[in-house]
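Sequence only, no structure available. Ideas?
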Amino acid sequence: MSYLEEIITPERKQRFIDILEQRTKYITVAIEDVFQMHNTSAVIRSCDVFGIQDAHVIESRFGERLDKNITIGAQQWVDVHRYASTHDCIENLKNKGYKIIATTPHDDDCLLADFKIDNKIALFFGTERDGLSQEVIDKADGFIKIPMVGFSESLNISVSAAIILQILTTKLKKENIDWQLTEEEKLCKKLDWAKKSIKSIDAILKRYYAEK
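Reply:
I predicted one. C-alpha cells follow.
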C-alpha cells in the first residue's frame, strides 16, 4: 500500500480516507431482475453517493444489466456481487446476518419514516413492471414503503432506492450502532481504490515485484 501511496496524490489519499469514514456494510442493496439496465446502474450510483459499499445484483432472467455509461465510474467504488438466482442471493445475505427487507407499496408495510434499524439489513428492489418476486416476499423479514399522496402509486426503482437510502443512512448514523467499516476493510478498499486510480497499474506492479 505504501508503494502505491507514493504514486497517488495526497489529495486523492485524503479523499479515500474521508469517503471510507462514511462507508457502511450495515445496510446493503439487492436488485432483482430489473429489465431496464439504466435503472440498475442508477441504483449502483446511489449506493456510492450514500455510502453503501456492497450491492447485490440478481440476473436470473435478463443477464447483465449494468450500463457503465450510466454508473459513471460508481461501479469502481462499490463492490457489486452477482447472482444467478434469488435463492442464492437471499441465502448468502441471511448467512451473513442480514435481515431481508422487501421494498413494496403494500398497505401493511412499514412506512419509511417509522422503520427501525436494529440489525444489518438488505434492501430488496424489484422489477419496474412486476415488483419483487414471490420468493422475496415469502422470505422477507420485513417490509418498507415510501408514503405517496398523489395519483401515481409507484416510483421508478432508481428514484425509490435513492429516497430510501438517503433516509436510512441518515438514520443509521444517528444510532448507537457500529455501522462503519472495520479498519481491515478500510485498508483493503484503500488498496483496491488506489489500484483503480493509477493508469498502467499492471506494469507498475510488475516492475515493483521485479525490483523486490
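Strands lie at 27-32, 54-58, 79-83, 99-103, 110-111, 121-125, 142-145.
Hope that gets you unstuck.
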